[in-house]
């Protein structure tokens, strides 16, 4: 494999190209007209414009991606995450064109792409499932009966769902019919497939997922867990590895189940098996993502494994160079997704120009991003600017480091999730590890950030006044002291 095409954009395209470069593999970028000056385009050895900004005209256009591959003579395609990464039709067409897809087989993608067929596959290995219906539900009366026997609250989920979409929480039987109709129409419009099913709503749920790697020779290993319970709109914002609450026995059990789920579809490549953990540490299989996850860096930090390199080696037909016993957890890693969103305004996207953009540096800090100062965040795609990852010898150090890195990170021109990240890192529930997927709803009140801003302004005003009126060495020292006291106190959320 001498050249690969990366069918993606932004931070993930760059992240993949970096590993390819280290392996001596040339890279081809594809881009839309909105991304003409994007960093991934500059980084690649060659770049091909796919078309207009809209994803359907560019990054989602299967034929154009395949044509770009043929034109440049790339032997393989890495799809990254999102876009075409979990599309079995794309995987089949790539194969038919004689190109290697760096990912699992189209069959595995197809089965795991649907939450119901995924559950059916998992059942072959007696993997625990959330109580619910194992088939799509169509008849409202029967569905109501099932929901009542499962016990409210229940979730109505789209079988083809993803990204937190097509999910409705129902607390009582009276609301069921209306919510089911809404769920079906939402599923139809978002996924072109109206099939829905019911799941018991696990109270106090934690989202814990296991990274797996499988080669083409039947070897499958897991690379431990990632905890992704800090979510807004059922979507992750803060992830960490390992989880603060898993004991060795549960970790080993979940790891084994994840490997079995992967085995049920002869999985090859990197994949993630998602579970939900209840308050009593019972875990249930949710779904499998047949691609590299956004949050994969935390696993890389604690295992020392470059997952992209492993994906490429597997696609080349190599045997995994390590066994389960060779893998262990070292230290702790946390990721904050830095989104162009306003946490004080319900996390709504806040698109614009990055007037200031300076990333944090130093020991234990990794920033995977796709932007430079002065660049605009395009409105056409996901508003993630960067992934800020910190690594420490233990959880405490990773948290401290994240706080330090957030303070160093300078972004102006748009609102971001950085202040939210600092809120999370200082919150007693997060620090103690005693939290679930309701963290944001329970604790995060936008006013908290406003208070922080006011306090920041007040301190800045005091310091400016002092420096201006009596600029002596002593006053400078006092001002510095005051700032550090203030920074320390600020952590008492
Ligand atoms: P998607 O594919 O849309 O991401 P998932 O099934 O992976 O949907 O669920 C996304 C999130 O929704 C989970 O991380 C969890 O927070 C919540 N969730 C899903 N299923 C349940 C459940 N049965 N009980 C409680 N929370 C759930």
From TrEMBL:
This is Acetyl-CoA carboxylase biotin carboxylase subunit. Pfam families: Biotin_carb_C, Biotin_carb_N, CPSase_L_D2. It is an enzyme of class 6 (ligase). SMART domains: Biotin_carb_C. One of its GO terms (molecular function) is metal ion binding. The lineage of its organism: Bacteria, Pseudomonadati, Bacteroidota, Sphingobacteriia, Sphingobacteriales. SUPFAM superfamilies: Glutathione synthetase ATP-binding domain-like (SSF56059), PreATP-grasp domain (SSF52440), Rudiment single hybrid motif (SSF51246). It comes from Pedobacter aquae. The keyword Ligase applies. Keywords: ATP-binding, Biotin, Ligase, Magnesium, Metal-binding, Nucleotide-binding. GO terms for biological process: malonyl-CoA biosynthetic process. Residues 1-445 form the Biotin carboxylation domain. Transmembrane segments: none annotated. Residues 121-316 form the ATP-grasp domain. Its EC number is 6.3.4.14. Coiled coil: none annotated.
